[in-house]
Amino acid sequence: MTCKELIEFLAEYLDGGLTPGQRAAFERHLGLCRACADYLDAYRQTIRVVRATSQITGRCAPPPLPPDLVAAVTAAATRRP
Ligand SMILES: [Zn+2]
To answer: How far is Cα 12 from Cα 23, in angstroms, rounded to an integer?
Structure first.
C-alpha cells in the first residue's frame, strides 16, 4: 500500500469498512510509515474536535420561550377587539 492509498482508505478504516486484507495492509503501512501514522493521529484529532464542536453548537439551540413572554403576547393578542 502506498501513502496515497492509505489516505484514500482512511475514512473507511475508521468506519471499520475495510476487508481484513485491506486492514492488514493499512496497519502494516502505518507501522512502517511515520508520516501516515502522524496523519492518522491528526485525522482522529480533527474528528474529535468536530464532534465536540457540534455538541457545543447543539447546546446553543434557542431555549424555549419564557412562559411570562408567552402570557404577555397572548394577553396582548386577546386584548384586541
Ligand atoms: Zn505512508
So the answer is: 10
Q: Give the distance (Å) from ligand 1 centre to CA of residue 8.
A: 11
**pTM value?**
0.61
pLDDT given for residue 61 in this prediction: 62
If phi > 0 it is left, if psi is from -120 to 50 it is alpha, else beta; for residue 51 that is alpha
Q: pLDDT by residue (tens digit) across 56-74?
A: 666 666 667 778 888 888 8
3-79 is classed in which CATH architecture? Orthogonal Bundle (1.10)
Distance from Cα 47 to the centre of ligand 1, integer Å: 20
